[in-house]
Structure formats: structure tokens, C-alpha cells
Amino acid sequence: MDFALNHTQKMLIDTVRRFIAEELKPLEASVDAENALAPETARAIFEKSKSLGLYALNMPDEFGGGGLSAVDTMLCEEQFGHTSDILIRRAFGDVFDALLACKGEQIDRWLKPVVSGERVCALAITEPSAGSDARAVKTRARRTDSGWVLNGSKHFISDAECSDCFVVLARTGEKELSLFLVDKALPGFTLGKNQEMMGLRGTTHNELFFDDVPLEPVALLGEQGDGFKIIADLLGRVRLAFIGARAVGKAAQVLEMMTEYANDRKQFGKSIGEFQMIQQMLADSVIEINSARLMVLHTAWMMDNGLDARDWISMVKVQSSEMLGRVVDRGVQVFGGSGFCKDLAIERYYRDARIFRIFDGTSEIHRMSLAKSLLRNGAPLYDIHR
Ligand SMILES: Cc1cc2nc3c(=O)[nH]c(=O)nc-3n(C[C@H](O)[C@H](O)[C@H](O)COP(=O)(O)OP(=O)(O)OC[C@H]3O[C@@H](n4cnc5c(N)ncnc54)[C@H](O)[C@@H]3O)c2cc1C
Fold first, then answer.
1. 355 CA distance to ligand 1 centroid (A)?
2. Mutual orientation of helices 276-304 and 310-335 as an angle, nearest 10°?
3. 98/221 Cα distance (integer angstroms)
4. pTM summary value
5. Which CATH superfamily hosts domain 7-97?
6. Coil, helix or strand for 141?
7. Using a 6 Å CB cutoff, which residues line ligand 1?
8. Residue 386 has pLDDT above 90, yes or no
9. Which of 34, 293, 317, 368 gets the highest tally of CB atoms within 10 A of its CB?
């Protein structure tokens, strides 16, 4: 078992780390204050990142992506976690693996332009009455002589304002769900209001409305009725990256801030880092961050080796997101009143961290799925020698 990073991995991490420090970190405070990233700035960071080969690193090189393994993707995604959601999206691209279900004409119309950054694509599953119970979606696609007609609505769709197209989960039969590639420019498509969030400022989260949206036959992604299977098969890597690895990166960033502050801040004539209760918060945080990172990388290794990692992804989703919540809560505590004050970045990290336990399946849903799997399969979930 070799845990050492090779030369290429070190170079990649260094490049991403430097890009974030030099190009993205300086933008974070203004994006949060203005709740927006200016289009010209978005374009500039996209072009710089693209020229360094850092866009869509997770996607196969045959479609123009970085062609990274799952392990290497997670190493980069951990670094992405050090910065804000909207800056990651514009600089590195949140390209969903679900698009890998594209076939034939779909590759040139949707997959390649999204991987190149020419188009942005968002994932639209959630509806006001179908959140955790995604199988209850009411959006319906009806077959016609010329393709399909889409009716219904979605909400909380991340990056919807910037997106040119959406992967939409819709009902195609009583018990049948399918995915569709839906262009924003189509007649009958309406972008609803931006639903303001506690954190992730600068990223938009919108309602979508479909009113008799005509879809060509080519808009069906994968086979009819395979919508849920595609999501289950292809969203795992995204979940591991966007939640697991980014949570580790975000927590590591917070720990760095806490440690620096604990050394600098003096009370009772000493650095607060000399007080054992502060030390415990630092020590617990470093233990939990390193445990979560090992699980992220182990799960990515399983994926690279063709093993079924679905349960592990659920374990990582819960562990990393809850670890981040605890670390950032301690972070605010170590900073005292300054941790609650908007003048310092720690307050923003606290707000941005909360959603990690909710989106991409809540902690409760992942625990429920893990428990079911454990009751069914037993030892293979915790005894890696079986
Ligand atoms: C900032 C943000 C970005 C998002 N981005 C997207 C996006 O891009 N695309 C998209 O499709 N969706 C997106 N979502 C939606 C997100 O995935 C859902 O909010 C999430 O899946 C939870 O669904 P819900 O909000 O309807 O909560 P509900 O499903 O109503 O859950 C409410 C509570 O009940 C609990 N609960 C529900 N069922 C059970 C159960 N069986 N057992 C125990 N507890 C249960 C939940 O864990 C939760 O605590 C986003 C949401 C937010 C807030």
C-alpha cells in the first residue's frame, strides 16, 4: 500500500493550489458581499484556468476533459474546497458525470461543449414536493410523433442562471423515470426566481418551469426508464468530489485559519492556543479531517479499481459533511466574537458549510441507505477482507 503522492500528482496539486491562491482567493470577499461574480471576471478566471488545463479535470480526455483518475480528481477537488462554490464553477467547471450517458449526436451537442466550457449544464432533479423522495417527481415527459413534450417544474437548481442546458429528471410512465437534455432557449421554458440561500453567495439557485416544452427524440439521455439508474451509477463520483473532497478541503482551510488565530490572539497574557480547551478543538479537528480524507481517497481508489463504491460514497457523504460542520463550528468558537463578525472570512465558511449535510442526499437519507445495505449485506461493509 503506497500513500505517497507521485511527482505528477504533486505538480497538479501545486498548480491548482497556486491558481486558487493567486486568482480566486482575492475575489472571495467581494463575491460574498455583492452576491454575484461579474461576467467579465468569470470569463477571465475561466480562460486562465483553461489555459492551464484545469477545466473539467474529472471528465475523460477523449471528450476534451482532464482525464484524471478518481483518486487524482479527489486530490484536486480537495484543493477546490478551499475556495467558494461560484469560483470553483467558473474556474474549474462543475461538470456532471451523468453527461457521460450521452451517445451519438448528443456527444457533440451537449457533452463536448459542456466539457470545453463553451456551455454550462446544471442538474435538475428536485421539485417542491419531491426532495429526498426524488422518485416522486411530477415533471412529466409525454411522447409525441416528433419527440417529447415536457411539463412541470423544479426548484433549488444550482447555477441555473448561468446554465445553457439542464439534465432534467421526468416521469415517462406511471413508475418510470427518465433523464432529458433540455436547452434553456426552448419555447415553454421559463427560468423562475433566484431562491436566496444562507450561503454559497454568488451562485444562483432557481426555480425552473416547463410549459409544453418540445423536445427532440435525441433529448432523451440514456434509455427510457433508466433515469434513476443513470443517476445512481454516475452521480457517485460527483458526490464524492463535490461533497466529500471539497468538505475536507474547506475544513483544512478553516483549521489553518483557527491555528493561525490561536497562535496570534492573546488573552490573560498568553496565546489562546496555550489553553487546553482551545488545543482540544484544534486536535479534534485535525484528527477528523485526516480520517475523512483517508475515506475519500479509499473510496476513489475503489472506483478506479472497478469496485462497487456506492455504500462508501454514502459513508463519505455523511462523514465529511458532518466533520466539516463540527470543524467550522469550532472555528467560530476559536475566533470568539470575531468568528461571528462579517469582517472575517470564518463567518462565511460557517454559512457555506451548512448545506453540505443537506444537498446531494441529506445525512438522514444516506444513513438510511447505509443501514439497509448493512442489514442486507452485513460484513462486506465493514470487513474489507471479505
Ligand atoms: C443550496 C442548494 C443547492 C441545491 N442544488 C440542487 C441542484 O442543483 N439540483 C437539484 O436537483 N437539487 C438541488 N438541491 C436540492 C437538494 O438536493 C434537496 O434540498 C435535498 O435533497 C433535500 O430535499 P428537501 O429540501 O426537499 O428536503 P426534504 O426531503 O423535505 O427533507 C426534510 C427533512 O426530512 C428528512 N427526511 C426526508 N425523508 C426522510 C426519511 N425517509 N427518513 C428520515 N428523514 C427523512 C430529511 O433528511 C430532512 O432532514 C439544492 C438545495 C440547496 C439548498
1. 10
2. 160
3. 9
4. 0.96
5. Acyl-CoA dehydrogenase/oxidase, N-terminal domain (1.10.540.10)
6. strand
7. 122-126, 131-132, 156-158, 197, 200, 205, 355, 358-359, 362, 364-365, 368
8. no
9. 317
Say how far apart CA 114 and CA 59 lie, in whole Å: 10
| Closest residue by Cα to residue 290 from 260, 252, 257 | 252
How do the domains of the chain map onto residue ranges? 7-97, 121-223, 228-381
Residue nearest atom 14 in ligand 1 by C-alpha distance = 156
CATH architecture of 228-381: Up-down Bundle (1.20)
60-68's contacts with Cβ under 8 Å and 24+ in sequence apart are 60/100, 63/107, 63/111, 63/112, 63/115, 64/112, 64/115, 64/116, 65/95, 65/115
- Give the pLDDT confidence score for residue 381 in this predicted structure: 86
3 vs 75: CA distance, rounded Å:
12
- Counting atoms of ligand 1 from 1, which one is nearest the CA of 122? 8
- Ligand 1 atom with the shortest distance to the CA of 160: 8
- Residue to probe by mutation, ligand 1, list 132, 207, 354, 370, most atoms within 8 Å of CB: 132
Output the nine-digit C-alpha cell for 159: 447555477
Q: What is the pLDDT of residues 252-284, one digit of tens each?
A: 999 999 999 999 999 999 999 999 999 999 999
User: Grid coordinates standing for 322?
Assistant: 458532518
What confidence tens digit (pLDDT) does each residue in 284-323 have? 999 999 999 999 999 999 999 999 999 999 999 999 999 9
pLDDT, tens digit, 9 for 90 and up, residues 121-143: 999 999 999 999 999 999 999 99
Question: What class does CATH assign to 121-223?
Answer: mainly beta
Kindly write down the DSSP assignment for every residue of 39-100, as one continuous string. Answer: HHHHHHHHHHHHHTT-TTTTS-GGGTS----HHHHHHHHHHHTTS-HHHHHHHH----GGGG
